[in-house]
Specification:
The complex is a heterodimer of chains A (about 400) and B (about 240). Chain A is mainly alpha-helical and about 400 residues long. Chain A is about 65% helix and about 5% strand. In chain A, strands 2-1-3-4 form a four-stranded mixed β-sheet, with helices on both faces. Chain B has about 240 residues and is of the alpha/beta class. Chain B has helices at about 40-45, 70-75, 90-100, 105-120, 135-145, 165-180, 190-200, 215-225, 230-235; strands spanning about 1-10, 15-25, 30-35, 55-60, 65, 75-80, 155, 185-190, 200-205, 210-215. The chains are: A mainly alpha (about 400), B alpha/beta (about 240).
Chain lengths: ~400, ~240
Amino acid sequence: MRGIFTVFRKEFIENLRDRRILLSALVFGPVLGPLMLAGLLQLSVSRGEATFEKPMTLPVIGAEYAPNLIATLESQDIKVEPRKFNEQQIREAIAAREITLALRIPADFAERWARSEPAAVEIFADSSDQFGGDASAERVSRAVRGYSRQISQTRLLLRGVDPVSTMPVVIHDIDVSTPASRASFALGMLSYLAIFAMLFGGMYLAIDATAGERERGSLEALLTAPMPRPHLIYGKIAATMAYMLISMALTLTACAIALNYVRLEEFGMSLSMGPLTTLKLFAVSAPLAVLGAGLLTVVASFTRSFREAQSYLTFAISLPTLPLVFIGLLRVEPSPLIMSTPSLSQHFLMMKILRGETLAMPDLLYSAGASLLIGAALCWFAGRLYEREAILG
Amino acid sequence: MITVNALSKRFGKVEAVRGVSFTAPDGRITGLLGPNGAGKSTTLRMLATLLRPDAGEAVVDGQSIVASPIEVRRRIGVLSHASGLYPQLTARENILYFAELHGIGRQQARSRVAELAALLEIDEFLDRKTKGFSQGQRLKTALARSLVHSPRNLILDEPTNGLDVMAVRNLRALLTRLREQGHCILFSSHVMQEVALLCDEVVVIAQGRVAAAGTIEALRSQAGEPTLEDAFVKLIGTAEGLN
């Protein structure tokens, strides 16, 4: 046991002095993570703001044919900009990003209107435009539909029909999402960031302690120390684990601080990431560090050089983190199987904490138990690797 | 004292060591001489408990390298030819780390480092990070590291590789001093002059076997050649791979 601690302390201190390792463990996650998170949130928040709340300008062709419609649009903060384009020119202007959308009112609009025939208007927009063209088009079309409904009801009234009779069924949309749950949807990437930062924080230490030690030629001397060889590697894994936990703790703390600067409340989202929440997030994901440290150490032990280890470990890190990027897009319900899958289970637990839900004890046990069990198996395996002669390279 | 008895080791199809036997007594410097690839390093690595022999046995101060490798490790100091150090630690920290791995108490380890620093004349760079050390500084630090637990037996694998003339002279002086203190010193080399200058006993190894063993005088008369060089060439059967 004392040997394990000796190795742990030496690896911990030595790597604190290595700039590259320090950068990856203590700077990368904790600084870039929250910046990315806050930046993305701010972006999505302000984009929503731009399309739905702010006045927008709408290029209109043939505005003179429907003055009442134009007036209605103007009353809804849609500033109309008369243009003289033919269809070809509209398409070109949208393709060239001069305008994001356009409304065209045909010359026969007034004529058809007078005959009580459906008068067509056309909205041109690029649905693949990710800068809000689609959302703006939706807003314009909603305004036009509203105007149309208003007119149809007036016409019915004029003919002595109660407009209510034309609406046998009405739909009331009731949004049951809480401000906290709306926020956590946007924050699905927080767990990704935290888990990625954790694994990345231990990556260079895992490499340095295995492939690095061999490449430097200090491994042979170390293996002549009078202690069981697995103890040496357990000390190294413990140091990797410590760096991972520190890295994640810093990242979570930094995220908690950064979120104070994102104006989520104004958009019906609330996210309380106070000290207790941060602590809970740390606690549920900590067992993953045992698995992560074991995994990275085992993979790095098979490689022959620092460079080789680096490319393999980058892959090993993306293995548990990449699914988290896509899991938000799929509708996956947490089942016992998922709750025993490392990294996925931590993700779901973190989401639950962020949503302010209570955690179920079985979920916690499955999640922590599976990660610790697989982690312990990997540590044992790493120990066996160091008993083989091939470890000398 | 190190007693080697019919030690064998193969890597796949290559028989690196085929039944090597010799004795390295206390208070003597024993040299393993042989061309590159003769099996010197493999033999020393088995004695250092880094490799497990396929057959045969070796005993270090009464402890078997096969049955009780950890006990053997307490009794040997090993200087492998790579002798890598931890670049982010100072020379002193490098040495203290190994003292701790050997279970030496902090107080005792400090005074041992002071002792070794005087012996090896490393005070000047003792508290500098080893990153950027010269080959000679590295060797001295690595040597101090392998001596920190005061082992009776010292195993050195090609210790003079890459050293300049002054460093070799210093190493020679040091090994002579350790011999006078009664240590058992076993080292390998493919440089004939080095072995001739330093060794009391020579074990000539070629193709994984002991070709001859004894004092330099004995080897010379055994081969019936007037010069050492001719004697070695005759004993090994070829001059290839020797310097």
